[in-house]
Amino acid sequence: MKTLLDALRSRATWRWLGTGALLLMLSPCADAAMLQEAVDLPNRWGPNPSASDYGWRYDELFTLITILISVSFAIMLILLVLPMIRDRARAGHKASFDHGSSLFDKRFTATVSVIVFIVLDAWVLVIAVRDLREGYWNIPTELEGAYRVEVLAQQWSWNFRATGLDGEFGTADDVITINDLTVPQDRPVVFNLTSKDVIHSLYVPDMRMKRDANPGAVNQAWFQPITAGDFAILCAELCGFAHYQMGAQLHVLSPEDFGAWEQDASMIAVAGFDPEDTEAQWAWDWKE
Amino acid sequence: MLRHRRPRGRLLPLAVAVILAAPLATAGSLSAFVDDEDGGELDPAKRHLRAPHDVSFEITDDDRLLAAGEDWAEVLFPRLDAEFPGRFSFDDDAEVWSDNRGEYVWDDDEEVYWQNVSAETLTRGRQDYVQFCASCHGLDGDGYGRSAQALRPPPRDFSQGLFKFTKVSPDYLPSDDALVHLIQEGLDGTPMFPWDVAEPRLRDVVQYIKSMSPEDEGWRDSTNDFGDPIDVGEDPWVGDIPAAVAEGERLYHANGCYNCHPGYLGAVAINAIQDKPADTAFRENITIPKRVEDSSYEVLGESVDIMVPDFTWHTMRRGRTPQDVARTIKAGIQGAGMPTWETFPDKTIWAIAHYVRHLTDEYHGQPAKRAAFMADVRAGH
Ligand SMILES: [Cu+2]
């Protein structure tokens, strides 16, 4: 206790602590300022509010992990900094040095590790698995009113194909769009994803959804938009030179707007359908 | 204290095995792409499956491309004032013009200038081409790269020497500037996005693309001529856009744009504009755009159909402003059924451009509003 008080009285201690604290405080400010300038984000710290039905799962888990690691980090910092102050060399005191290899140290380390693992990792793992089973892996079927979209990724664009009014893939009224996806609000939107060339990843941050598109395989993903509006679709897998430019627009329309859209989109698709152009009919059998 | 040390060399045989096996495995997986029995020739339908084995090859010969035809003076003389002005010289009695962009040799027989494109330029252009363009346009520029399958409209086949949106009047090859601008601006609604690659590199890519013209075609055809993007002058409707839109609506329907694009007025209104009896009939489904059959777009030798844009629905490829639209109207779209409207006065073209842009601004991306508008139009037929 006395050594701690000594340390707290020393000007050097405060100089170092102050500098460290200042740097820690400044670094996120600098990052945020640069980000603000680069992408003209609205002025806030967190991610965009979730626009999907299961988005709260992601947000909750993210917050929990952030709190857990922040607390652990603070404890670790105290455990590191205290001995540095207590055992440092000073007048009348030689710096002590310890390998931490005594039996007590080993037992202490092992106990702390096990507790940290059980409390933190297992806790997070249990929630994550529950989220996967109840949310991300619980893919709604067509019968449950899913709006189905086949996604064909390529360097460096997204090809989307929806069934149109007839509810079947590979027909004349399939609505095919490039880098532009329109979906209904309050209905599950289910994706079948694959790629023409390399691995891409369909990433819709506002919906808290991300899924790889692999050549030669069909992956599934889904979300249910709860807010109408325009959102960004990105590619989250480095896929070549123009990866950073590989994006698309997601339009979530209210049920009435979507009805009007689907009607018109199907009609125009039928008008533009070229039956002889077999290569353009790339739909595959839907994978539930 | 004893120090335990892992005996050296225990992992050596394993390391040697891995090092030896790696190239063999790679060669094995590549052989799936290269059909050796046919001397490397693949079934044309599987051309996109070729491994990019020749990515790094270096071009060793200079190329000779058409630089300027009869209008050569227009192309070369403005450069006299450029930052690095060029100069004439005589080399083996041939007249040579050189400036910062290259060397041009006068051909007395054909009466054209040829441009000597250096092997280094072409190699640099090829390297960027392979990195940026080949995934869609193909390693050979045939418009059928690995990522081009099923893409509609298909990527440009560079061996055709034909471009849709360079905004150069038909019968002319686009100038280098026109091609560079197209690459920089991109084509909206397609995977051809605005490429933010440094301009000197784009110029090299453009040279390489030009060198893909087959013998006696495109940039190897001395009878060809060049054009810069067409000029539509200043907007004559500045300050009175609503009048331009109203006039544009009249002109759009007076000139039969609805024969391919949709009509956006009822039958009575269109017939009134055209001074025809009110019950004159129009093409079927006049509110739905037409499909152009037998366009110049080819995939594996077969022409594919192209959809004419509906301005309330589709994204215009290169029509972000009324000026862009006006230039497209004046230049026409080669190979896609859109004729040139060069004979129209600029004021007419600008009015139609304002009207078309107005349709897009008003209804594009607004499904309910658009549906109501089109239902109104449909009710009038
Ligand atoms: Cu990607």
Tell me, rounded to a whole number, the average pLDDT of chain A.
87
The largest sheet of chain B has its strands arranged as 1-5-4-3-2
CATH architecture of the largest domain in chain B: Orthogonal Bundle
Number of strands of chain A: 10
Contiguous helical run count of chain B: 10
Task: Please write the CATH class name of the largest domain in chain B.
Answer: Mainly Alpha
Calculate the terminal CA-CA distance of chain B, rounded to whole Å: 100 Å
Rg over C-alpha atoms of chain A, rounded to the nearest angstrom: 27 Å
**SSE topology string of chain B:** HEHEEEEHEHHEHHEEEEHHH
Helix/strand-derived category of chain B reads: alpha+beta
Largest sheet of chain B: 5 strands, antiparallel
Query: Strand order, biggest sheet of chain A?
Result: 3-2-1-5-8
As residue ranges, the low-confidence spans of chain B are 28-40
Main beta-sheet strand count, sense and barrel state of chain A = 5 strands, mixed
Strand content of chain A: 15-25%
Q: Please, how many domains of chain A?
A: 3
Q: So, the CATH homologous superfamily of the largest domain in chain A?
A: Cupredoxins -  blue copper proteins
Mean pLDDT of chain B: 79
Radius of gyration of chain B: 27 Å
Structure, explained:
The complex is a heterodimer of chains A (288) and B (381). Chain A is built from five helices and ten strands, in the order ααααββββββββββα. With 288 residues, chain A is of the alpha+beta class. Chain A has three domains: 2-32; 55-87 and 98-136; 146-274, Cupredoxins -  blue copper proteins (Immunoglobulin-like, Sandwich), CATH 2.60.40. Chain A is elongated. The model of chain A has no long low-confidence stretch (mean pLDDT 87). By secondary structure, chain B is an alpha+beta fold. Chain B folds into three domains: 15-50 and 119-217, Orthogonal Bundle (Cytochrome Bc1 Complex, Chain D, domain 2), CATH 1.10.760; 63-117, no CATH class; 241-378, Cytochrome Bc1 Complex, Chain D, domain 2 (Orthogonal Bundle). Chain B contains ten helices and eleven strands. In chain B, helix 3 crosses helix 5 (199-210), helix 4 packs across helix 5 and helix 6 crosses helix 9 (346-363). At the A-B interface, helix 5 of A face helix 3 and helix 10 of B. The complex binds copper (II) ion. Copper (II) ion is lined by residues 156, 200, 235, 237, 239, 243, 246 of chain A.
